[in-house]
Amino acid sequence: MNPSRKTTFRFHGKQKTRKARDVIVVCLLGLLVCWVFVASYIVDKNVSSPLDDGSAGASHEAGRAAGVEDAADSVYIGEGKKAATGNLREVPPPLPPPSPTILRPPAPVVPSSDTGPLLPPASPSAATGNLRANPEVATGRVVGSKSVVDGPCDGGIIAMTYATFGGKDDRFCRSIESAAQHDVPWRILGWGKDWHGLTQKLEGSLDALRNLPDECTVIFTDAYDVLYADDLVTIKRKYEEMGEPVLFAGECGCWPQITRDKGKGHVCLFDYPESPTPYKYLNSGQWIAKKPAALQIFSALIEEAHVYAERYKVPISKINDQEMVSDMYMDGRFGIQLDHHNKIFQAMHATHAKPLEECDPWPEMENIDGVWENKIHGTSPSIFHFNGGGKIHHLEMERAMWYKQGTNQKRVALRKDEQRSLKLRVGDGLGRLATFEEICPSYF
Known about the structure:
Number of strands: 13
Transmembrane segments: 21-43
Low-confidence stretches: 1-14, 41-146
Strand order of the largest sheet: 2-1-3-6-5-7
Distance between the termini: 83 Å
Protein name: PLOD1-3-like GT domain-containing protein
Number of helices: 12
Pfam family, one: GT_PLOD
Helix content: 25-40%
Mean pLDDT: 76
Largest sheet: 6 strands, mixed
Number of domains: 2
InterPro entries: GT_PLOD
Order of helices and strands: HHEHEHEEHEHEHHEEEEEHHHEEH
Structural class: alpha/beta
Region (Disordered): 83-131
């Protein structure tokens, strides 16, 4: 009996040892999973927190992370949900691609008499103007002045954006500050709404356009990755001198069309019109137009987005606005033109891989007295858009702006207390007035 008991004891001992080992392995795996979650949280925090750091290295690392994220999202939308992109040329079987010639005509322009003004009229405030390009405009600003968006189209031009929330970092607040420092009363559409998709921007813009006077010039930009570098007086003058009814930003990248043929670039290389510069491709994050022309385009975009969503059974919120507008440009609709020479718009995304042409805006940039210029084209862009990989230059270029450096003696920057109390019109419809500090409480 003793050998038997001894063997049994050793057998149970091995079982206990194995059970203990299994418990230890499970615990270690659990710790590993927890560590991964904690590490992911730390990495996510590090992407946003360096934005307040002010260091060049932190700026580049945070921007590079944001740029990679944008690229990943772009590919997912372009390849994974092809039917949802508003592609007028190629739609996967079994449905044949719709021809541009049989698209519904654009919705009629709503006469201004059919709707009242979006906001009550107010007396226009004096603008400082571009003191470098337009020296006859009075220098400096009135100390203590507080720009308020409180009119339907003061000065014949209105600047709008679409933002439902402040985001996880302060880049939106930096965009607001750049607009404020250049006396741009930014109208923030959509503020306070839940974000569902890109078509919200189209619908919000269309609603706002319907309530503007016909003679109004409208400038629209993205919200979270732009910097203003001119006032509205100068932007309007540039637009009128260029003589194009509808002007979108030109950029180096051909997105999302580059994903249509698995990166071969047939659409980008052969369907896009010829361009005098590498800024050949349309960027929908910046545009300027008279109200009637913009209303035609956005009415058509919304109508066609609903047609595609119904035809291909996809959520309308997933339809890609940049692809739809790009197709309109390639098809020659609505007189859409691009700012190939960066007179008003400067997109900062670069391309370094075939089949697209080598194009990098960063070496073209030169800062003179706190004002960024494109030295290749000899222009001073009014608005910088740090789209895609261009995000790595956002904070570095902002730090060199005149209002951050105090290098331009002809300009007087808003003080922090003036920025805090600055009022902007936010929300859809009549919206409401909100102070800069209310919109960006942690920025100060």
